[in-house]
């Protein structure tokens, strides 16, 4: 797919513009259906180098977010495997930036500054670990996030084979540790 960006940049640009238009329409429909927040989940963006992100993706992501801003609800952007892009992600008009488990929250906060809320970044594979290991991972994320605006979440999607009891344990532990 990345080769397509090089072999036919005009067609690639048109495709990216079409995807941006479709994403705007889809996310607007989500808001019209009652969504309280919208998330742009950019699963493959981490494959791009920073220059390619700035040239190819950032203008489209910005257009998507700016088109949705008038809706007046929080806009989240998740650049999966995008730790190397955070310096450029900082310029996007998102309210919340999702951080995958590969980038420490403290590092993301240093790069992104205090004007954006961070989301994440528990390693989803910890849902398969014994409860004490999962608890330690949860506590580590909460410790990294302390004193900042943060929404606890996995650092990527949940595996369909994750044990629902582990997910319940996670939710209960986060609530216990953040209550009050």
Describe this structure in words.
- The model has no long low-confidence stretch (mean pLDDT 95).
- The protein contains 7 helices and 5 strands; from the N terminus they run H-H-E-H-E-H-E-H-E-H-E-H.
- Strand 3, helix 5 (105-112) and strand 4 (117-122) form a beta-alpha-beta unit.
- The radius of gyration is 17 Å and the shape is globular.
- The protein has a 5-stranded parallel sheet with strand order 1-2-3-4-5.
- By secondary structure, it is α/β, with parallel strands linked by helices.
Low-confidence spans: pLDDT under 50, at least 5 residues?
none
Estimated radius of gyration: 17 Å
Beta-strand segment tally? 5
Provide mean pLDDT, rounded: 95
Distance between the first and last residues' Cα: 48 Å
Provide a count of the helices: 7
The share of residues in helices is 40-55%
Structural class: alpha/beta
Question: H/E series, N to C?
Answer: HHEHEHEHEHEH
% residues in beta strands: 5-15%
> Sheet with the most strands?
5 strands, parallel
**Sheet with the most strands: spatial strand order:** 1-2-3-4-5
Shape: globular
